Structure formats: structure tokens, C-alpha cells
Amino acid sequence: MTTKQTFALGNPAEFKLKALHWANQFDTACYLDSNKYPSKYSNFECLIAAGAEEELIASCGTALAQVDAFIKNQDRIIPGFLSYDLKNELEALESNNPDHLDFPDAYFFKPKHLITISGKEAEITSENPNEVWEEISQIQLSETSLNFKGSVAQRFSQSAYITTVKKLQEHIQQGDIYEVTLCQEFYAEEVNFDPLAAFIALNRISPTPFSSFFKQQNKYILSATPERYLAKRGNKLLSQPIKGTARRSSDKKEDEASKQSLAQSEKERAENVMIVDLVRNDLTRCALPGTVQVEELFGVYSFTQVHQLISTISCQVAAEQTLSNILKATFPMGSMTGAPKIRAMQLIELYERSKRGVYSGSVCYIQPNGDFDFNVIIRSMLYNANTKYLSFQVGGAITAKSIPEEEYEECLLKAKAISQVLGL
Length: 424
Hints:
This protein has a single domain, classed as Anthranilate synthase, CATH 3.60.120.10. Helix content is 31%, strand content 32%. The chain has twelve helices and 20 strands. Helix 2 (63-71) runs antiparallel to helix 9 (323-330) and helix 6 (195-205) packs across helix 12 (416-422). It is globular. The termini are far apart. The model has no long low-confidence stretch (mean pLDDT 95).
């Protein structure tokens, strides 16, 4: 029998860090942190879930139906993640590129212990909230080291990536697609390092509103993603795709100029509006007729590492729509595929050199009332401690006006925070 209890926090930042260390002791743990970014759609600042009372491990085929069944009648928040390759369940698609990480296609768990933090209060749901509070309070924090030793290699050389961009632009010229997101993998083998320390360092260097640490046995998602894929609040759905990236500068004038250049860039705005139209189309498949709207177009948002162009699209959804119906209409997210979506995904499979797996999938939580929040797994390290394989992928949207060399440089910019964490 679980109970809820609220505790006052003298130092919320310290408590969050202690709770993260405490959760990492379990085989299954999820930590979601908004890093105090303001949002009218946020339910809390931080969520920590630890220990699996029940769990769902599902493979592509009937995974979404299994998710519907798993979350039905649950009495607490259910965290989980979805793999990009669930696309194969939704369309006649395949994933044949090499997979060195071996994450499930879908994973959800009912946590034994659940903590939500808002302001200076923590609500603990557990069989014994006081015991959890005491265990966390007694943790002694100390500086942790990644102990990363190894070399990072790339699946694409610079010249190969540029050549591939040009090939995709030929598809655009032929009318196959308007836009496609091409990603490349950076990886290291025989890696021994501390995933928790890596996430803490990443979150310090690149705090973002949808950062996440997810541990599923010996597999880890360490994410500094700034992007929301999809959220539901009551009967409202909203998606906030990111398309458009500009470098930050320590010089205030240069930084402001970079921000204004992004806001006015014809190429970046074209990238963004194509995906906005795709998301609008996706949402119409599950929306009440006439309710799809663009709440914000080309919003410029600044993060520690980059400026981003973000738009917000919303709709009203019928009460009888299940989670699987909504995901079938919208997954995978358009910002990581392209337009038209199915043809873009076919070309992604043809030209990329690694299976995406959970990269460009989503870490999420689902509430008992049916509300949910799904991020986009980008700017993330993925680690399999069993095989000692570390991976991070980066990419960008290719359009007719893309300059291939600049697309490659954008990949390196997006990998900057992770490179800093690993000392590259």
C-alpha cells in the first residue's frame, strides 16, 4: 500500500542531486529535470522514479497495444521510453542498420518509489515515504569522475557525410521529399565509465528543459534534450518541434547577432515551417475537426550551448482517443524524420549507417488521468554497460538550400556538450 507525503526542502538543488544518486542504486530509475525553465505546461520541476514494481518490455509489432494495456487503471505516474524503430509497427518500414546498443523498442515501469519536486516541496509516493526521505537525506555528496578512457570514432567521415547530403539533395530535386533529417553516430567501444557522473556533468554543461537520466538494468539514456515531442493536458495536445540552430557566443553583441540571424534566416525558417506543416497534418489524424492551430511560429529560444527555432502546434483531442491512437498519428516526431514523413524515413534507413534505436525516440511519463509528456531523445549519450558500448548521434535537416559543409559543422555544434563531457 503506497502513501503520499510532502516534505519541505531547504535546498531543492541539493535534494535533487541526492535523490538522483539514491535512485541510481536501483536496477530501474528515471530522472526528469526541467532545470527551472519556465513553461505553462509543466506539472512539476523534477520527477524521480526508482524501482520497478511492474514493467513492460515490448518489441515492435504489438508494442503500442501493450502500452495501452499496461497504463490502464494505473494509480501513479508511469515513466518509460519509446524507440524510433517503432515506426516499423506503424508503417511498412524496416530497420536493418547495425544495432550495438540493444535497447527495447518500448519500456515502461510502475515505480516502487516516486518523487515529484515543485519549488521547495517534494512529494514522495512510496510504501514508506519517511524512510525514503531519510535514506535520501543521509546521502553524502562528493565530486564524481567519469573515468572515461577510450577513443570516439564516427560512422561517417566528413567527406562521406557531405557526399550523402548531396545525394539526399538529389532526391529533393527529383521531388521525392522536401526535407529529411540525416544523422550520424559517434561511438566508443570497450568503454568503462560512470553513467551517473556523465549525466551530472552533461546536465551541468547543458541544462535543458527536458533533460533525462534513464536506467533500465544495464542500459542508460543520458539526455540534455531541449525538445518536447508531444504533451497532453486534459483534452489538449501540443507539439513543439525544433528546427533551426545557431551558435552561442560569450560576446554579448555576437550572441545577439547570432540570435537575430537565426530568427531571420530564410533557410532555417523554411526548415521549421515544413515540419510545422507536417505536425499539423499529423495532429489532424487524431484531433477534433477544426481545432489544430499554430500557437507560436519561429519562436527563438536560447539554451546554454545553442539558440533554437521552436514552434508550438496544438489541437483538441476527443476523449476516446487512446495513447496508442495518438502515437500512431504522430510518431516518430517530424523534426527527426522529414517531409513527406514515410518517404523521408525510407531514405533515412537507406543512407544512415546505424540503427537509431532509442535515439530520436522519446523518454516520457504518463499520468493516471491520461495526461502525458514525451521528449525527443537528442543531444544524448546512450550506453550499454554489458557490452561497454557508448553512442551519441547528431544530425540536421537537409533541404534544397542546405550547404553540405555547414550541415556537417552543425552536427559538431550539436555534439559540443557531449564532447566537453567526454573531454574530447
